[in-house]
Design goal:
Oligomer: single chain
Distance between the termini: 41 Å
Strand content: 5-15%
Helix content: 40-55%
Number of helices: 18
CATH architecture of the largest domain: 2-Layer Sandwich
Shape: flat
Largest sheet: 6 strands, mixed
Number of strands: 6
Structural class: alpha/beta
CATH topology of the largest domain: Nucleotidyltransferase, domain 5
Radius of gyration: 26 Å
Order of helices and strands: HEHEEEHEHEHHHHHHHHHHHHHH
CATH superfamily of the largest domain: Ribonuclease H-like superfamily/Ribonuclease H
Amino acid sequence: MARSRKRNNRQGSRQKAGRPAAIHPPTLVQSAAAYRRFLAYLSGQPWLALDTESDSLFRYTARVCLVQITVPDTAPDRAWSGNPSDVVDFLIDPLRVSDLTGLGSILADDKTEVILHAAENDILTLQRDFGFRIRRLYDTQLGARILGRKGVGLAHVLQEEFGVVSDKRMQRTNWGQRPLTSKQLTYAQIDTHYLPALRQRQISALKEDGRWEEAQDAFRMLETIRYKEPEPRTVWQMKQIRSVDENDLGVLQAVWDWRESASKQLDRPPFKVLGESVLVALAQRRPQTLASLEEIPQLGAWQIERFGGELLAAVQKGKHQDSPQRPAPARKSDTLRTAAGRRQFDQLRRWRTETASARGVDPDIVFSNDTLLRIAACQPATVEDLLEIPTVSPWKAQAYGQALLRVLMPDGKR
């Protein structure tokens, strides 16, 4: 990056969070008619930038509450200028527009590149809520990491690259409330507005550094991600469960079950019904009266008034039930169950650390721990064998294959 640009960015970073004057307000899409107009504008465009906002801090089961889309401010058959201001921003409200099928068709069409930042979560939530699949994507966070950039969160990148300050407080607001505030709308718009220009800058840098093929290969791997229903929540996921005596686990299970049931009924995140420390205190103190509930720290008067009788009933129930069965310990990878396997895994990790350090990137940009375990377990003898491992992409097999195979050879044959 040129020195003058860095200086200008530092000066720009002092501005307050808000919509820069050069950015036109977004188009809010909240009706079927507005959605049809949006799809007409989107049709045939070579790329779009996308982000989502959800209400995970305010509901038991999160949902996508807003979809942000940025597209070129030109006809599809005309080249885009690359100027961050020459785009159009749309904010689609899925709480008002119930059928987003048209957008799903565009995302699944490989004629349109979809630009995201930290794509994985958006990929999964769009699959979960709408069944959308993205066919051709570009992840600006992953691109930054392949380039060895530090501080790759979107707020940092926007400030560093464009001198734009994003109001990170908006991340914790309730995106399910209507109407959305002007600050929320500005924050949501900025999340995608600069991604096309950022992508263009990154592509130039990736090609200059000889990393363009690597980046494209990494994006293709991201496209294979598939949403899976999460495992049911259990009491054993509590961070403080180790502080609970075995004799109190039955009561803890009972108040945990009550909280899960109440959270679903109220459609609130469990931690906003009762905190984890309150559950532990209930299990350990076993209160029998409303007055004794008042002695529990962090249990508010409104919670006692609303839930007190139910909590006391749950405690009494827990006194008479067996402790929950502990889950089986996570099974170690077969590779790590032998001294030879652990030694080879450590050798692979050392090789990865050295390779990543020489490139100036984080180790997982080379290979994740899970992939190294699979490599150690499969004992590939050729590059073709490496390609049989699902998490080893074609580019990585070619770029790192021979070095990996040498690490896997017995000491005397290297």
